[in-house]
Amino acid sequence: MKESESAQLQEKEAWKRAVGEAAAALIEPGMVIGLGSGSTAEWMIRALGHRLQQEGLRIAGAVPTSERTEAVARAVGIPLTDLDHYPELDLDIDGTDEIDPHLHLIKGGGGALLREKVVASASRRFVVIADVTKQVPLLGLHVPLPIETVPFALTPVRRRLEALGAEARLRQRDGQPFYTDNGNLILDCYFPDGIADPGELENRLRRIVGVVETGLFLHMTTEALIAGPGGITHLARRSEADSSSPTGPAVP
After folding, report:
1. Record-annotated residues binding substrate (predicted)?
2. For residue 237, what pLDDT is reported?
3. Which of 2, 27, 35, 107 has the fewest Cβ atoms nearer than 10 Å?
4. CA atoms lying within 13 Å on the CB side of residue 126
5. Is residue 73 part of a domain?
C-alpha cells in the first residue's frame, strides 16, 4: 500500500472514531437505544462502553442490529435487551453506505439491513453517523443497493430486479452464498445511472413477492452527524414546508 493511501485510510478511521464518540455523547441516562452495525457504529459502541465504565452512565438497555454488533456490545459491557421488552426505543444510532442531500440512505453493505430497518423504525429518533466520503448527490452511483430475499424465491426475484434495470448479483463470501443473520440471501443491485427516484423504486421493489427488505432507508433519518476535515457537521431532517436540502452547523 502506498504511503498516501495509508494516510487516507488513517484519516478516514479518525473521522469514524470522532463521529462515533460524538454520537455516544447523545445517549442520556435511562434511555433504551438501538445499536447499529458496521465499522463506524462500532466506534460508537466502544465509546458508549467507555461512558458506562468510566463515567457511570446507566441506560435501560440496548437492542443490537446484528450478531456482530451484539458480540461487540457484550465485550464492552453494554446491557442488551430486545424489542419484545422494549418495542419503542428512544434513540437508534447507525452508520450508512450512502447518504443523499435529503438524508435518504443506502444501507446493508454488511448484510444487516433488515434488522437495521426494524430497529430504526421502532425508534423515536434515528441518528445516522458517517464520514464525508458517504455523502453523495445521488444514491446508487457508487455502491449497490442490497435486496434481501428468501432463498426459495431467488431466481424469480432476480429476474424481476433485472426487469427494473438492475444488474443483480448474488452476494458471496469466500466463494459461497452469503446468508444474513435471518437466513436469507442478498442480491446486490447495480444501477449504472444511479437511483433517480428512490421512492418510486422502493414502491416497485416492495411489490416483488419474495423480497424481504430493501436497503433503501427513506424518510427515516431524523438527523445525521458527518465527520470530515472541518470537524463534525450536524444535519437535521426538515419538514416538507422547509427547504428540501438539510443543513446544519459544524460541531467542533
Report:
1. 37-40, 94-97, 107-110, 134
2. 87
3. 2
4. 23
5. yes
| Residue 100 labelled as part of a binding site | no
Q: Check the annotation: does 97 bind a ligand.
A: yes
For 134-203, the DSSP string reads GB-SSTTSSS-EEEEE-GGGHHHHHHHHHHTT-EEEE-EETTEE-B-TTS-EEEEEE-TT--S-HHHHHH
Question: Does residue 244 belong to any structural domain of this protein?
Answer: no
Listed residue (86, 149, 137, 85) closest to 113, CA to CA = 149
Supply the CATH number for residue 67's domain.
Answer: 3.40.50.1360
Active site residues: 116
pTM above 0.90, yes or no: yes
pLDDT, tens only, 197-236: 999 999 999 999 999 999 999 999 999 999 999 999 999 9
Cβ atoms 221, 135 nearer than 8 A:
no
**Same-domain status, 117 and 182:** no
With a cut of 80, say whether residue 10 has pLDDT above it: yes
Pair 54, 83: CB distance under 8 Å: no
118 within a domain of the structure (yes/no): yes
Shared domain check, 128 and 150: no
Q: Known binder of ligand: residue 37?
A: yes
Its domain, for residue 191, covers 145-213
